[in-house]
Write a structure and sequence with these properties.
Largest sheet: 6 strands, mixed
Radius of gyration: 15 Å
Helix content: 10-25%
Number of helices: 2
């Protein structure tokens, strides 16, 4: 499972001109699922992200997590994180999990974040979405459950 984590001042996702998820301060997550992923991968990344210390304290050091700052999460499914661009000019998405399994693990991942006490907003799985955010810092990290 692969997640792009972006610390943000605000973020929202729109589907067919309707806002489906919107947050203020927190984390914008792009979430991709591959064939070998299990609930163990989803739980590992949910726990890692909830405790990731990337928010600054009064001294300007990254010492606080999204949980400690009472931030929120905007989680958006993103199968293109498993796009392989090594050959040719068109990405190959064979590394992405089948939609039904990817949606199941994506939902499980979001539920694990909620179980940890976080507010989690989402896009619509499989839909064409417009995503906007104000990346704060900028701070952007890539987490992979297999690395």
């Amino acid at each position: 499972m692969r997640v792009v984590v972006q610390r943000c001042k605000d973020a929202k996702v729109t589907v067919d001109k309707a806002v489906t998820g919107e947050i203020g301060k927190g984390l914008m997550l792009l979430v991709g699922v591959t064939h070998e992923d299990t609930e163990k991968d989803a739980k590992y990344l949910a726990d890692k992200i909830a405790g990731l210390r990337i928010f600054e304290d009064d001294a300007g050091k990254m010492n606080y997590s999204v949980t400690e700052t009472e931030g929120a999460i905007l989680s958006v499914s993103q199968f293109t994180l498993y796009g392989d661009c090594r050959k040719g000019r068109r990405p190959n998405f064979m590394g992405a999990a089948a939609p039904a399994e990817a949606e199941r693990l994506y939902d499980y991942f979001n539920q694990e974040l909620r179980t940890g006490g976080l507010q989690v907003e989402t896009g619509v799985f499989g839909a064409m979405m417009d995503v906007s955010l104000t990346n704060w810092g900028p701070v952007t990290l890539i987490l992979d459950s297999r690395s």
